[in-house]
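During the first year of the project, the team set up a workflow for recording each protein of interest as an amino acid sequence followed immediately by a discrete structure-token representation. This format lets reviewers and collaborators read both layers of information side by side without switching files. As required by the reporting guidelines, we include two representative entries from the current panel. The first entry is reproduced here exactly as it appears in our internal archive.
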Amino acid sequence: MSVAGPTAPTTPRRRDPALVWHQIKYEQLTFWRNPQSAFFTFVFPIVIITIFGALFQGGEPSPFYGGLTALQYYVATIAALSVLGACYSQLAIVLSTRRQDGILKRARATPLPTWMYFMGLLAHCVMVSIVDILLVMGIGKLYGVPMPAAAQLPALVVTLVLGAASFCALGVAVASLIRNAEAAPAVVQFVLFPLMFISGTYIPIKSDWLDVVAGSLPVKPFNEALLGAMSGDAGFPWQKLAVLLAWGVLGAFVAIRRFRWDPKPE
């Protein structure tokens, strides 16, 4: 007669939502433990919109700004710039730095699934973007720019989440092409700055062919979708959202194919 030996104790497995929430908290703690970076992440758009508010306060609606006041226009475009900074620029630089420091390689060796790691990053970037946008709209309100009405919130939320997800995917894709952390800021800004200028972030572009080019790229549709959601349009800009979605899918495809966890170049 055989006697069964003692069974090994089993450790209860944490559920996926708990693991994702743990990763989000980790990203938040990492962000806030670098107070200088966190400070300038929020201060940069505030300084810009404060300067623009002082310059354009009390302006009348103008055809140059699509029938809006200059300040209404810039509240939306600076809000979009905040999302770009949090979800594209900062993410690409952070991932490049973590890879070079070996942090990504160590994270890859843990039981944490890859999708949860990036879900934590995405959620963190969306949270930072929401705070940035609220700050920009709050400063705009002080200068007389009305806050979005309740009917506009669904389109605003969908635009924000889809834009943040798409630019996060593009940030990971660009990070996969960067060879070392020192080159990351230069590569990121080389891509971003021309897009911002041709997409009307700082001044409306009145060129038919440039509008066509910029409209097929992600920044201009995001600017215009946020502008519509913040200035009274309660409808969903499906064409612009489709462009954002397409670029997000492309960014995710490049990231999946080329992203490296190991600091050594291929």
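The second entry, processed by the same pipeline in the following quarter, appears below.
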Amino acid sequence: MPDPGPSPLQSSLPAAVASFGAHVLASTLAAGAEPVAGVAPVEPSPPALPVLPTGHPVPTPAVVSVPVPDEGAAVAAAPQASAALERILRGPSGLGTTSLHWGRSDAPAVAAAPDAPAPTGGRPIPGLYHHPVPEPDPVRVEELGRRIKAWALDEVSLYPEDWEDQFDGFSVGRYMVACHPDAPSVDHLMLATRLMVAENAVDDCYCEDHGGSPVGLGGRLLLAHTALDPLHTTKEYAPDWEESLLSDAPRRAYRSAMEYFLQATTPSQADRYRHDMARLHMGYLAEGAWAQTEYVPEVWEYLAMRQFNNFRPCPTITDSVGGYELPADLHAQPAMQRVIALAGNATTIVNDLYSYTKELASPGRHLNLPVVIAEREGHSEREAYLKAVEVHNDLMRDFEAAAAELAVTCPVPSVQRFLRGVAVWVDGNHYWHQTNTYRYSLPDFW
């Protein structure tokens, strides 16, 4: 496969804050430019995070702050849009910009050659466009792994003892530390980790291998969703609903994870998460319906389903885990919604590609992008897989281009930091899939 080469936009996200900070925004407004609709010029203060039950002290590094660049240099660059864009693509520099490089490596994006070595276990898919990331902090990984397992076992009784090796093999601590390197504390990381584990419990127990079935899936998902989006009913029937939240492991996990999340976030952040989980559940239902009727969707139909049945709820809470808030009006901007959707789509195709051999070896027929391309477009398994790699690469480049454009047109610190957080989540998600050799292995197509 030809090497697609690095994207020229790969460095735009960390650079955007340095080039377009608060001083640039003020200068632009002073010069008479129209502000971006719905943009507030001041970043809100981070929400206070209550002390959650831990039992053990955890390392708590300083909160990452958004630096303000030198005003003179920023103002000089602002009138020259093309020159400014060219400069920010080279990445931030100068006093105070080191903290912007939370997780993405300075190494260029790569489309790996077949013999490219992996940093720690596993290897990247040859030809897959991705960014290498630093190894996640082992101290945090260990502490997060200990605490999430204690939560799963002691607080919500999530799984029986014979599932323990699968829980450990998921390596959720390493996953979340890689995806959220800017989290101020392990408490913040636990917010994302509980939700991730709960989402996987619902997928496994309602949809997949651990008792899942498309039959009756809608009813189960609706009742589980009320653990995230509470039922408002009469006094007579409320106790029955409350009792139902403890009736199975997925609902117990949803309920507990959401309670912790509500303690640490704003109402708009919580409602944003509920909305994205409703999207996820709708995607589960579409895939379940196709399984029940044995329908193989067209490729575009499959990609439409994957825009809903995907990782979107995870990067969309990057500000919550980072200890700040992207205001609701900025999150709702169509350009931001496109960035988030493309990030979710690209990361989910990563899952399709790395889990390909695992799904082929599982009972029943699993839909994934290579399988659908092979079926609908008449390709061999190898040709379909390699085309799926190219679909991923196109999505990644569209994501990076959309994020870079938004970083330039909406120079607000909270927007810049959120874009950076989503980009780092995308990179961390690939790192976890690549290195999780307990779960994944690559097909022999190269």
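For the second entry, the following points were noted during internal review. The longest strand covers residues 110-111. The mean pLDDT is 80. Both points are flagged for discussion at the upcoming steering committee meeting.
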